[in-house]
From TrEMBL:
InterPro entries found in the cross-reference section: AceGlu_kinase-like_sf, Asp/Glu/Uridylate_kinase, Asp_kinase, AsparK_Bifunc_asparK/hSer_DH, Aspartate_kinase_CS
Protein family according to the UniProt entry: Belongs to the aspartokinase family.
Residue runs in coiled coils: none
Keyword field: Amino-acid biosynthesis, ATP-binding, Kinase, Nucleotide-binding, Threonine biosynthesis, Transferase
GO cellular component, one term: chloroplast stroma
EC number: 2.7.2.4
Main EC class the enzyme belongs to: transferase
Protein name: Aspartokinase
Keyword Magnesium: no
Pathway given in the UniProt record: Amino-acid biosynthesis; L-threonine biosynthesis; L-threonine from L-aspartate: step 1/5; Amino-acid biosynthesis; L-lysine biosynthesis via DAP pathway; (S)-tetrahydrodipicolinate from L-aspartate: step 1/4; Amino-acid biosynthesis; L-methionine biosynthesis via de novo pathway; L-homoserine from L-aspartate: step 1/3
Reactions performed catalytically: L-aspartate + ATP = 4-phospho-L-aspartate + ADP
GO BP term, example: homoserine biosynthetic process
Keyword check for Cell cycle: no
Length: 346
């Protein structure tokens, strides 16, 4: 069952010191609700000196059935000071290049008191490019090598790997399989919802591998996870699958189990799951990485799920169009809904 977030208003105060960050709520809990298990207490803007900006969603950690199922592991961790403490989600804009990934790594390390689970989306516009590549393969193109979008995706990921000083072999298999898949789609001249989900999954599978390898390269122990391999079980509704209940305990068992036996920062693919009946890769709908983050937070019974953006909250317009765009200090639900209706990206 998918987790729903009901947004009633977000306050984004101008400056907020990092030391106060964890203890303050910026709007009353009842203004924002986060399914029946949790309450959303605030949305904040992180000051420039902490080298990042973010929308932080704070949830109440309450005992739920998932925690009961994983009690033995949680009990082991209860007294530990270094247990997994929050989820940090970074979207495509935040990991769009090697430099952006370096900033994300720096940001994560600037919170040494946290042991976060990291959820990443695909780099930049990779998902859109992959969908376009699939559509081209299914229509006019006879060989994947003719598809510009495939070149774009290869180039983007190779450049990131090179600039981060990593070995290209970490994504070689994925790029080869991606090309093979596009050739298969081209041979069949058919892009089904199922093959489309498999196709776009390459984006998150590669971004997380690159980022985990980079953290390991700079001496921070990290472990990459494909969500469809760690218990993200979904309906078989390709392109827009719902998370099934069993996911929470499966994911908690896997992440806690690994953390207890060999602690390493988990780097999890957003957006992806595995269909219950088909066992095929599914996706959770566009923008679905946020749902991955909240699912992990709920499964692990964590107090915080942080959704980081590369902007200072909602601005007066897209900063890519007008560099003088300024943060909007307060948004009502109606205003947010209107912005979304007219296609605001953020
Ligand atoms: N009014 C706006 N305020 C802030 N950012 C905006 C706005 N309109 C467009 N953007 C763009 O949205 C991007 C964030 O997009 P979003 O899809 O929310 O992020 P993510 O890739 O993290 O999921 C920003 O990098 C910014 O360029
Ligand atoms: N990459 C997927 C999932 C996602 O959540 O992306 P983002 O966090 O960049 O919106 C998409 O583009 O839909």
């Amino acid at each position: 069952m998918a987790t729903a977030t009901h947004l009633c208003g977000i306050k984004t105060p101008i400056y907020f010191s990092k030391s106060n960050r964890l203890s303050q709520s910026l709007c009353s809990p009842e203004r924002l609700s986060f399914d029946s298990l949790t309450e959303l207490c605030g949305a904040i803007r992180i000051p420039a000196q902490s080298r990042g900006r973010g929308l932080k969603v704070v949830c109440d950690a309450r005992k739920n059935e998932v925690l009961v199922q994983t009690e033995s592991k949680i009990q082991v961790l209860e007294g530990a000071t270094n247990k997994l403490s929050c989820v940090m989600k970074f979207g495509g804009s935040s990991v769009a290049s090697a430099d952006r990934m370096k900033e994300v790594a720096e940001l994560i390390l600037s919170f040494p008191e946290e042991n976060p689970v990291i959820v990443l989306s695909a780099m930049g516009k990779t998902t859109n490019k992959l969908i376009l590549a699939g559509e081209k393969a299914a229509s006019c193109v006879s060989d994947a090598s003719e598809i510009d979008e495939l070149d774009f995706v290869k180039e983007l990921h190779h450049r990131a790997v090179d600039e981060l000083g990593l070995d290209r072999s970490i994504i070689t298999d994925h790029l080869e399989n991606l090309e093979r898949l596009l050739n298969g789609i081209s041979a069949l001249k058919e892009l089904t919802p199922r093959s489309r989900d498999y196709l776009v999954s390459f984006g998150e599978c590669m971004s997380t591998r690159i980022f985990a390898a980079y953290l390991n390269e700079i001496g921070v122990k990290a472990r990459q996870y494909d969500a469809f391999d760690i218990g993200f079980i979904t309906t078989d509704d390709f392109n827009n699958a719902d998370i099934l209940e069993e996911t929470y305990s499966a994911v908690a068992n896997r992440l806690y189990g690994d953390w207890i036996s060999d602690p390493a920062i988990p780097i999890v693919t957003g957006f992806l799951g595995k269909g219950l009946r088909t066992c095929a890769v599914t996706t959770l709908g566009r923008g679905g990485s946020d749902l991955t983050a909240t699912t992990i937070g709920k499964g692990l019974g964590l107090r915080e799920i942080q959704v980081w953006k590369d902007v200072d909250g909602v601005l007066t317009c897209d900063p890519n169009i007008y560099t003088g765009a300024e943060p909007v200090p307060y948004l009502t639900f109606d205003e947010a809904a209107e912005l979304a209706y007219f296609g605001a990206q953020v």
